[in-house]
Write a structure and sequence with these properties.
The chain contains 14 helices and 15 strands. By secondary structure, it is α/β, with parallel strands linked by helices. InterPro entries: 4NH2But_aminotransferase_bac (IPR004632), Aminotrans_3 (IPR005814), Aminotrans_3_PPA_site (IPR049704), Class-III_PLP-dep_AT (IPR050103), PyrdxlP-dep_Trfase (IPR015424), PyrdxlP-dep_Trfase_major (IPR015421), PyrdxlP-dep_Trfase_small (IPR015422). Its EC number is 2.6.1.19, 2.6.1.22.
Length: about 425
């Protein structure tokens, strides 16, 4: 029995079945490479789900954490605050694209950031309603699931969910949903389900993560900003997956030139350490009463030290520019591949910066989803030493999230493996025939 097989057996006997995993048991990792317990090498195009934007174990991040560990690892910011938290808040206030004076609070996970942003918006507006969008993902807590617009695997069997959460259509040009249709759906929601003057906030991802890397059109975000201003609604940018240089800008909203009121961050913020943040307009952030925000581990000193180092690395290594170049190389390879004879099941290639995905279909005319093909490509890639992730409400999208620090030769090697995996998967009969 291999070490991986042994661990898989132990996992089944010890870990709750609802915790879904892959069969890659990590032993060590460095930048964009990971080795399992059997010594097999993988190129990592998942980056811990967009967490390791600065790569596995970036030296600057590791040194910052080691230095902090020599001082203290936990005091609870509410009990004995520390300079690192304040410094990180100052830096996030300076870069968050609200166009206003900002304030920041730190917590631990993306879901916590989202929940606190909702709390803050409700405290500021004195309204209950929250509008999210179809295909959205905002976390696995009860409120996070209520906001999420994807049933499997996140919402099935876990309801009922909190009230006063509503969903409107998200634009999807590939499936024929235009910005105008999405805005019309929002207007129908106002007419049929909730008065816009009872809505505290819109929450929207600039690029949907779990929803399939659907990019919010500029005009859609512009219209949301206009509607938010018209009705006194707080506009929350969920930048948990798209933020921290992933899209070629520090935040995805910057591509549209639209200024949100609040920004949620997590994932890539601390280079592999658990940390999240809500940053936004001071008058909104200060609406909650003292003691109403926070948590025992909120702004953990080790994670804060890592995040301050991550911001240094993003700036010094020009990771926004690098993300744009990574995205260009991936997109060029995928669009070239999709144009070849026999590759018609690649229905769409899309994304921003180094947040790129491709959608698998039975054919480009009907655009029927091909989830079994998607799973085969992921499996073929894994067998060849490449880690991929799928996503999408139709379970037929493969997302590519390599670290922004990936070496160019490793990126090329990974793309070669991806192409081989696609070719191998496409050699199998169609989903219906294989079923």
């Amino acid at each position: 029995m291999t070490a991986s097989a042994d661990l898989h057996s132990r996992q089944k006997a010890a870990v709750a079945g609802g915790v879904g995993t892959r069969a890659i048991f990590a032993q060590r990792a460095q930048n964009a490479e990971l080795w399992d317990v059997d010594g097999k090498r993988f190129i990592d195009f998942a980056a811990g789900i967009a967490v390791n934007n600065t790569g596995h174990r970036h030296p600057r991040v590791m040194q910052a954490v080691a230095d902090q560990a020599e001082q203290f690892t936990h005091t609870c910011f509410h009990v004995a605050p520390y300079e690192g938290y304040v410094r990180l808040a100052e830096r996030l206030n300076a870069i968050a694209p609200t166009g206003q004076e900002n304030r920041t609070m730190l917590v631990t996970t993306g879901a916590e950031a989202v929940e606190n942003a909702v709390k803050i918006a409700r405290a500021y507006t004195k309204r209950p309603g929250i509008v999210a969008f179809s295909g959205a993902f905002h976390g696995r807590t009860m409120l996070g699931m209520a906001l999420t617009g994807k049933v499997m695997p996140y919402k099935k069997n876990f309801g009922p969910f909190p009230a006063d959460v509503y969903h409107a259509p998200f634009p999807n040009p590939f499936l024929g949903i235009s910005t105008e249709e999405a805005i019309s759906g929002l207007e129908r929601l106002f007419a049929a389900d909730i008065d816009p003057e009872r809505i505290a906030a819109f929450i929207v991802e600039p690029v949907q993560g779990e929803g399939g890397f659907n990019v919010a059109p500029k005009e859609f975000l512009v219209r949301l900003r206009e509607m938010a201003d018209r009705y006194g609604i707080v506009l929350i940018a969920d930048e948990v997956q798209a933020g921290m240089a992933r899209t070629g800008r520090m935040f995805g909203f910057e591509h549209a030139g639209v200024e949100p009121d609040l920004v949620t961050m997590a994932k890539g913020l601390a280079g592999g350490f658990p940390l999240s943040a809500v940053t936004g307009r001071a008058e909104i952030m200060n609406a909650a009463h003292p003691g109403g925000l926070g948590g025992t581990y909120a702004g953990n000193p080790l994670s804060v030290a890592a995040a301050n180092a991550v911001l240094d690395v993003i700036d010094e290594e020009k990771l926004c520019e690098r993300a744009a170049e990574i995205g260009r190389r991936i997109t060029d390879r995928l669009t070239s591949l999709a144009s070849r004879q026999g590759m018609e099941r690649i229905g769409d290639v899309r994304g921003l910066g180094a947040m790129i995905a491709f959608e698998l279909v039975e054919d480009r005319q009907t655009k029927t989803a091909a989830p079994a093909m998607t799973n085969r490509i992921v499996a073929e890639a894994e067998a060849r030493g490449l880690i991929l992730l799928s996503c999408g409400t139709r379970l037929n999208v493969i997302r590519l999230l390599p670290p922004l620090t990936i070496e160019w030769d490793v990126l090329s090697e990974g793309l070669n493996i991806l192409e081989a995996a696609i070719e191998a998967a496409f050699s199998v009969p169609s989903d219906s025939a294989a079923a």
